[in-house]
Design brief:
Length: 395
């Protein structure tokens, strides 16, 4: 796996695919610069080597050229975060881009206009990718968030660089973290899967049963498993057409020696509302008119014990409706348990969708080993798929 450390960038122009798809407010100000900050180590390493950086990214979902999606809006924020002036060019290919790139001196940064102003980007157009490739000497992919897309700048462009291509430090870290969980992690390995629906996690569950020793199933998914085994789930969320699959998963887990842990009690509510009446009930005896919206106190104790027995932990999906404070307790308790296990030497990776939001909301991001930056890319990795953007560098 080639990384930045395999190259000396002195007098080289690095063409870097970054993920600067940051949120902007109505005044076009960046409201969360996490993605820009995440790209800083790669950019700094190249500049310190004596190279220059050509940054390319998409922003939003423009239909053709739309000024509101111009990366020009964020050039000043990039400059502020990196601490180096940023030159901006209002096209990512063509004469202007080529001229701006050719003038670039060591230590300088050039930011290209939004890649998705050209339809060819998402189509993975070969000619467009070739035009991009003319701008730099070494291709660096540091955009995990788009690594599951075979777009021109994330995948196709790599074929024009022969051996002169590598992962940036962010993407390398993402790959290392996933590998640690899925392949080389110290045992026992635990996956915690929460969230709303079994249907969106089936491929992950099936792939993960070969990798883990313990699987905690929480959140809304719980009730499909509970009902399938004959429990009464009241009005809790359930996918009846997935009950058979849930039983099959339990059977497979047994055959593979994977212990599945479901909540034993829940915080049930008489409405999906922050103002609902609530009560703690056994997960198998939820009364009609009530729905489980978080795991209960006994479950928290059981999950805490499992988490603290494990040396490698993957967490995807909240254990309850954490968006409402009253039903966030199970998710927070799990975060506390994982933080403690991490402090005691376990490796913990949080990734994919809402668990990242939950971890940030409750301040756990510095208490776990790694928080993934890419929702879809992370989910596809957990499903066992090879990401095209990663494969393109390895080829
Ligand atoms: P996902 O995107 O699949 O990870 O699902 C995340 C969503 O699952 C969050 O919005 C949670 O509010 C929701 N969720 C978690 N537990 C429950 C539950 N017991 N009932 C309904 N929704 C839930």
């Amino acid at each position: 796996m080639k990384t930045l450390n395999d190259f000396n960038f002195e007098n080289k122009k690095a063409l870097i695919r970054v993920d600067f798809n940051v949120p902007l407010n109505a005044e076009f100000e960046v409201t969360d610069a996490t993605r820009i900050i995440s790209a800083k180590p790669t950019i700094i390493k190249i500049l310190e080597d004596g190279g220059s950086c050509i940054l390319m990214s998409h922003l939003g979902r423009p239909k053709g050229v739309q000024d509101e999606f111009s990366l020009g809006h964020i050039a000043n924020v990039v400059a502020e975060i990196i601490g180096v002036e940023v030159n901006f060019v209002s096209n990512c290919v063509g004469v202007d881009a080529e001229e701006a790139a050719s003038k670039l001196e060591p230590g300088q940064i050039l930011l290209l206009e939004n890649l998705r102003f050209h339809d060819e980007e998402k189509k993975g157009d070969r000619d467009f990718a070739e035009q991009l490739s003319k701008l730099g000497d070494i291709y660096v992919n540091d955009a995990f968030g788009t690594a599951h897309r075979a777009h021109a700048s994330t995948t196709i462009v790599a074929q024009f660089f022969n051996d002169n291509k590598c992962f940036g430090s962010l993407l390398a870290k993402e790959i290392e973290s996933i590998t640690k969980v899925m392949e080389t992690g110290e045992k026992p390995v635990l996956a915690v899967l929460g969230g709303a629906k079994v249907s969106s996690k089936i491929t992950i569950i099936e792939n993960i049963l070969d990798k883990v020793d313990h699987l905690i199933v929480g959140g809304g998914m719980t009730f499909t498993f509970v009902k399938a085994q004959g429990g009464q789930i009241g009005d809790s969320i359930c996918e009846d057409d997935k009950m058979e699959l849930a039983l099959e998963i339990m059977k497979q887990a047994k055959a593979k020696n994977v212990q599945i842990h479901l909540p034993v009690d829940v915080l049930a509510a008489d409405a999906f509302s922050k103002d609902a009446q609530t009560q703690i009930v056994d997960v198998n005896h939820i009364p009609e008119g009530w729905q489980g919206l978080d795991c209960g106190p006994k479950s928290k104790v059981i999950f805490d014990k499992v988490v603290n027995e494990c040396k490698t932990i993957l967490w995807n999906g909240p254990l309850g409706v954490f968006e409402m404070e009253r039903f966030a307790g199970g998710t927070i308790a799990l975060g506390d348990s994982i933080a403690e296990a991490t402090k005691n030497g376990a490796f913990s990776l949080v990734g994919g969708g809402d668990s990242v939001a939950a971890v940030k909301q409750f301040g756990f991001q510095d208490k776990v080993s790694y928080v993934s930056t890419g929702g879809g890319a992370m989910l596809e990795s957990l499903e066992g798929k090879t990401l095209p953007g990663v494969a393109a560098i390895l080829e």
